[in-house]
C-alpha cells in the first residue's frame, strides 16, 4: 500500500516552484517510487479539494470519471483518485495550498482523513512563514495581480486575525484545523526560512521527507520565466500609493526600484519592506503567542526551530527610514506633481 504526503501550503512559501518542479520531473520520480499525480488542469492538486471547496475555474470536463454512483462528480473524482493510488507501491506526494484555506470555505479535515484511510500512512506538511514576511507577501501578490486595496487597512485586518485573502495568518489556527481530523504525529510543520537555508534549497526538505534517493541536482530545473517572483516591497508600496486605484505604471515602478536598490546598498540593507517600523513591531507582537503554540511541530520536524523565523529588522529598509533627501532623489523633478504626492505619502507613512 502507498504512503501519502499532502503538502497544504502555506501560500507564498515557494509552493508554485515546488509544484512545478515536481510536475516537470514526475516521470523520473515515478521510477524511484515517488508518485506526483498528473491530475486536473494544472501542476498542483487543487482539484482534490472540490468535495469541500468551490473552485469555479475548474471546468466540468476535468471530472469525467465515467458513471457517478451516488454523491456527485467531485466525490467520484476523489474516490477514483484514492482507488487508483492507495494500493500502489511507493509514496504519493500531493501539493495544493487550497487545503489550508480559511475562508470562504474550509476543508473538513475529519472527512478528508476518513477518505484517505485506505493509504498505509498519511502525513500533512505545512510551511509556516513569519507573519511579518507572510502578510507582506500576500499583499504583494494581490498587488502584482492588480487587485490590491491600500496596504494599511489590509494589515489592520490581519492584525485582528481576520484572514486576509482567505488564508490563515495565525499558523496555530491552521494547526488546530488539521488536528480536527489528523493525529499530532501526522502533522509536520516546517519553517520557511529554515527550508530556504537547506543545502539543496527549498526542494531539499521535501526530498528528505519523501526519503527520495534523488537529490535536487538530479532534477530538471524550471525555466526562469516559470517562477513566481515577488516584486520589490517598498517600490511596489510607493507605486501603488501614487496611482491607486489606477494600475501601477511599470516605468515608475522600475525607476523606484532602481533608486531604492541604490539607496539600500548604500545603507547596507539586504532588502526593502513596505512596513513602517511600528507596524513591523506590531505584527511580531500580535502573533507571538500563536507562533509559540506551534513549537512542538517545528521542533520535532525538519526545521528544528521553536518559532517561525522573523526577518532581522537591521537588514531591512523601512518606508519611514526614508528622509526627505532620500525621497527627493527617488523621483526626478521632471514630474513635480508626482514628486510632491510622493512626499506627502512618505511623510504620512512615518506616522503610521
Structure explained in plain terms:
The chain has 352 residues and is α/β, with parallel strands linked by helices. The N and C termini lie far apart (56 Å). It is elongated, with a radius of gyration of 22 Å.
Secondary structure: elements and pairs:
Layout: E1 3-7, H1 15-24, H2 26-30, E2 34-35, H3 73-85, E3 91-95, H4 109-115, E4 121-128, H5 131-144, H6 151-159, H7 171-179, E5 187-191, H8 192-196, H9 203-209, H10 233-243, H11 250-266, E6 271-272, H12 277-286, H13 288-293, H14 295-300, E7 316-317, H15 324-330, H16 336-349
Parallel strand pairs: 1-3, 1-4, 2-3, 4-5, 6-7
Termini separation comes to 56 Å
Q: Approximately what portion of the residues adopt beta-strand conformation?
A: 5-15%
How many strand elements? 7
Using the CA coordinates, give the radius of gyration. Answer: 22 Å
- Output the structural class: alpha/beta
Shape category: elongated
Helix fraction?
A: 40-55%
Amino acid at each position: 500500500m502507498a504512503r501519502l504526503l499532502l503538502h497544504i501550503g502555506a501560500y507564498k512559501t515557494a509552493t508554485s516552484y515546488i509544484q512545478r518542479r515536481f510536475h516537470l520531473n514526475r516521470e523520473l520520480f515515478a521510477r524511484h517510487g515517488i508518485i506526483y499525480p498528473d491530475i486536473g488542469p494544472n501542476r498542483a492538486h487543487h482539484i482534490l479539494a472540490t468535495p469541500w471547496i468551490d473552485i469555479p475555474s475548474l471546468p466540468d470536463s476535468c471530472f469525467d470519471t465515467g458513471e457517478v454512483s451516488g454523491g456527485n462528480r467531485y466525490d467520484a473524482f476523489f474516490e477514483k483518485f484514492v482507488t487508483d493510488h492507495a494500493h500502489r507501491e511507493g509514496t504519493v506526494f500531493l501539493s495544493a495550498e487550497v487545503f489550508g484555506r480559511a475562508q470562504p470555505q474550509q476543508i473538513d479535515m475529519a472527512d478528508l482523513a476518513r477518505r484517505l484511510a485506505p493509504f498505509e500512512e498519511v502525513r500533512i506538511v505545512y510551511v509556516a512563514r513569519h507573519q511579518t514576511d507572510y502578510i507582506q507577501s500576500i499583499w504583494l501578490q494581490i498587488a502584482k495581480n492588480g487587485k490590491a486595496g491600500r496596504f494599511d487597512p489590509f494589515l489592520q485586518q490581519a492584525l485582528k486575525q481576520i484572514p486576509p485573502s482567505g488564508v490563515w495568518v495565525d499558523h496555530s489556527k491552521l494547526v488546530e484545523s488539521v488536528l480536527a481530523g489528523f493525529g499530532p504525529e501526522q502533522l509536520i510543520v516546517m519553517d520557511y526560512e529554515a527550508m530556504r537555508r537547506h543545502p539543496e534549497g527549498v526542494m531539499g526538505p521535501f526530498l528528505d521527507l519523501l526519503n527520495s534517493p534523488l537529490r535536487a541536482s538530479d532534477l530538471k530545473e524550471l525555466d526562469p520565466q516559470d517562477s513566481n517572483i515577488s516584486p520589490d516591497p517598498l517600490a511596489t508600496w510607493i507605486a501603488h500609493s501614487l496611482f491607486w486605484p489606477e494600475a501601477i505604471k511599470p516605468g515608475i515602478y522600475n525607476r523606484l526600484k532602481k533608486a531604492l536598490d541604490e539607496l539600500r546598498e548604500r545603507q547596507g540593507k539586504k532588502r526593502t519592506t513596505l512596513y513602517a517600523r511600528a507596524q513591523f513591531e506590531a505584527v511580531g507582537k500580535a502573533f507571538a503567542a500563536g507562533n509559540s503554540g506551534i513549537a512542538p511541530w517545528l521542533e520535532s520536524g525538519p526545521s528544528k526551530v521553536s518559532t517561525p523565523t522573523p526577518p532581522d529588522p537591521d537588514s531591512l529598509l523601512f518606508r519611514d527610514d526614508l528622509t526627505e533627501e532620500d525621497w527627493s532623489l527617488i523621483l526626478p523633478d521632471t514630474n513635480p506633481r508626482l514628486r510632491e504626492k510622493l512626499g506627502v505619502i512618505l511623510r504620512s507613512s512615518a506616522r503610521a
